[in-house]
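Let's practice the habit of predicting before peeking. Look at the sequence and jot down your guess about where helices and strands might fall. Then scroll down.
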Amino acid sequence: MAQAIDRDQAPKTIDPYDIGWWIESADEETYGPVSRKTLRRFLEEGDISPNTLVRHCTQDESLPVADQPGMMDRGEQKAVALAAGDRLAEVWPRKKHALAALGEDAVPCARHRRPATLVCVRCHAPYCSKCRAKPFRRRFYFCRRCQASNYNRRAFAYLLDGALINGVPYVVAVLVTAGSAAGIVVVSLVQVVTTALFLVRDALWGGAGPGKRLMGLRAVQIADGKTPLTYGQAFLRWISLLIPFFNLFDLSVPFRDPLQRRYGDRWAGTRVIDTERKLAQARAKVRRWLARKGYQLVPEAVTESTPTALLAE
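Done guessing? Here is the structure:
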């Protein structure tokens, strides 16, 4: 939650859980984001039931509305305990301004002078539709800036590792063995060794090769979001980039995956996340942005129910 700092009035408490809710309808569609106020109105009007599954943008699992803290009191739960189903397909608006109104409340965007509708798990910034990651129809955990930052740093780390592990040894081998009869053999051997080293570099250096370390990134197992990947996973996640033409497509996949995984990451059960130091820097920057607007962000904008893998990101 955040507190608005006002010179003339007492600080006003604002809860990030007032915004950023997704609704899983009985028609197998996902609607949102909506505010907690909108959820309560839907409940009162019978558009959703206490058994309708909802998820906050900082949560990985959906729960019935009745089980979400602060949604309903015990009396309300008993009164409508048998209610089921929803009418979201009928009442969901089609116009953009009406959709925006469903997701807005009193929480301000950290980057723009607009109401926020979602909360970024990475930087903890409440953000508006302008900051929303693409494509808009997907339920992303990150804001647009964190999405771009993660992708760009991963791309630069890949190029840097290629230059340091493959490029430099190759150039040195060519220069040293120039004019030698065994030069071709030595250069070929260097290429084989450096290629093998490149494929398992992240596992060899404890989850982050030289490029990732400089960019504040690390590769971990998706099961817990903490354990570094194994040598087998390190090799498996790069197979997709060894397939001609498919590798070009695979490089664009992170922009369409909520957890920014390539197909190689999905096959290996891994993902790339920020280091704790990089996370601290990103969240400190958000606190400074909010401070300029007269708000103070409480350090933790998510609850204990948030998955470790997401918190690590």
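How did you do? The longest helix spans residues 144-176.
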